[in-house]
Amino acid sequence: MKESGALETLERPQRLAALDTGRFDCVVIGGGITGAGIAREAARRGLQVALLEAHDFAAGTSSRSSKLIHGGLRYLAMGDVALVRETALERKHVHRLAPHLAEPHWMLVPARSWAALLKFRAGLSTYETLGAVAEADRHRNWDADELARSEPHLRRDRYPYACVYREYVTDDARLVLANLRDAVRHGAVALNYAPVVAVLVEAGRAIGVEARCDVSGRRIRVRADVVVNAAGPWAEAVQRLESPAAPALLHLSKGVHVALPRAQLPIQQIVILGTEDKRSIFAIPRADIVVLGTTDTSHHGGPDREPSIERADVEYLLAPIPRYFDISPPRPEDCVTAWAGLRPLIAEPGKAPAELSRKDEIRIGPAGVITIAGGKLTGYRKMGEQVVVQIANALGRSLRGLSPDDEAPLPGGDFAGDVGALASGLASAHPFAGRVAERLARLYGTEADAIAQRGAEPIAPGTAVLCGEIDHAIDVEAAVTLEDVVYRRTRAGLYDPAARDAMLTPTAERMAVRLGWSADRTAREVAGVRAQLAADLAFRHEETT
Fold first, then answer.
1. In the chain, where are the structural domains located?
2. What is the CATH number that goes with domain 419-541?
3. Domain range 9-62+173-249+357-406, CATH architecture
4. What is the pLDDT of residues 155-175, one digit of tens each?
5. Across the strands, what pairs with 270?
């Protein structure tokens, strides 16, 4: 067992060799949350596991969600009681594994009348029963006086009542990395930037895959008794590698998120806002920003076409703000960050994206490839367990069962108490501000102290990102490009608009020293991230239609 669970970028050649020469029980295609969860569950049960990701770990859907671990209360109205129960219970499990990556927060539902509040509470009581919510965390009702104290900018003339209940805020990309590292700690071999180009078949059965390393150009063959397709939006493309005639499986839905400066929308709780078309969106405060999302519209053109952020998407997300808050109506030009992702939903002809179930589905292909699609971020661990059962059946083996007592915390999750206390201890031990400590604690948990010891000085003056984070990304988290570090390791590309521009050049230069980049490569890395940041916010310059 690899105790550190480190994914060292400089050890990439050794991992390539291990994949090419080894023999595995299973190879997982896809390094998002579903693939990471499968790899972890399989490795914990003693299987020899390989995992291949075509891009960076979590580069697709699993870094572009609403960053919530929640049971999906609205799915009760859709009749998905089993889904709601499963995911509501899973919130607590993920919190035990990684308290910094499943942090409890109050979610506020404004109500225009007492009758509307009672109606919502009826569904919420069922939700809390399904999720075995502790008494101390059960919902509370707020009247106008409490709202005036806790959310003074909410328009109490329109919403004199509210109910608050517990949900959990996460960081999706870092949750993926934590699960992958735990899989590696239990013996798995994982590689990013390694697209699968063929499924190897002998005598009608899949016996592994062929992949291409996009860093070295080397081709490898990963031999495995079971092949698992957990490629998310790309699941259909992988299915066609097994069988060109594979039937359609997915409906791709686009979800857009934007963020305003928190000073412009100064809320304290997560607030659920109603849209004109009767959907609900979230306003989620995080450090110095408030995230608004998400849209739910059909995406056309396949998963390789980057989901666009149109001005109309942004206007849709901003439209409810003046109905709920007594602030100046925000404009698209006020947004400081944005992202769009694809949901790989199970297709149901005739239904709009918002009507489609978030249930997962497992299919077995003609050569025995196990494909899993659909599902929710919150339920990733249970999805992993379900796939491991299928792997065991295919291997004809009985795998040892695991009790909750067998389950050690994910990397960084080995602490009791809340994240605030962890941050206070960190700030006392190192010479940086409390807001820097809070950011580090939420991203890295107990590993934040070791990161600060690597380099507690900011990567650029006035930023909250530390030099030690860049080294940690290379030595522990398999970062290959500047985009990996800015978007998916430090998360500054999404959460910290004040830091992201200033950190680009010094971060690239630090990576260049560690990874041996040329001056030309370093300049290209900086230009590439700047282009991505500009593309994310291009809607600010579009004409209003």
1. 9-62+173-249+357-406, 71-171+251-355, 419-541
2. 1.10.8.870
3. 3-Layer(bba) Sandwich (3.50)
4. 999 999 999 999 999 999 999
5. 107
CA 204 – CA 166 distance, rounded (Å) = 50
Query: Distances from the Cα of 389 to the Cαs of 42, 233, 298, 372, 380, in angstroms?
Result: 9, 23, 33, 12, 15
Strand partners, 254: 297, 342
193-215 tens-digit pLDDT = 999 999 999 999 999 999 999 99
User: Scanning the structure block, which residue is given the tokens 């890295």?
Assistant: 444
- Quick count: other Cβ atoms within 10 Å of Cβ 161? 22
Closest CA to 44 of 249, 187, 240: 187
Are 262 and 337 contacting, i.e. CB atoms less than 8 angstroms apart? Answer: no
Cα end-to-end span (Å), the chain: 58
d(CA 271, CA 275) in angstroms, rounded, equals 13
- Whether 542 shows a pLDDT value over 90: the answer reads no
Map residue 537 onto helix, strand or coil: coil
Query: How wide is the angle at C-alpha 527 spanned by C-alphas 526 and 529, nearest 5°?
Result: 70
Question: With helix as H, strand as E and coil as C, how does 454-478 read?
Answer: HCCCECCCCCCCEHHHHHHHHHCEC
CATH topology of domain 71-171+251-355: D-Amino Acid Oxidase; Chain A, domain 2 (3.30.9)
The tokens describing 29, both together, are 């295609």
Number of other residues whose CB lies within 10 A of the CB of residue 103: 19
State the pLDDT at residue 127.
78
Cα-based distances in Å from 191 to 3, 14, 233, 415: 18, 11, 19, 29
The conformation of residue 308, written as its DSSP 8-state character, comes to P
Q: pLDDT tens, 6-43?
A: 999 999 999 999 999 999 999 999 999 999 999 999 99
What CA–CA distance (Å, rounded) separates 301 from 307?
9
CA–CA dist 158, 258 (Å, integer): 25
Q: Give start and end residues of each alpha helix (H) in 32-171.
A: 33-44, 81-97, 114-130, 144-150
Per-residue tokens: 463? 């930023």
CA separation for the pair 68, 66 (Å, rounded): 6
- In a 3-state reduction of DSSP, which class is residue 525? helix
Q: Do residues 15 and 31 touch, judged by C-beta distance below 8 A?
A: no
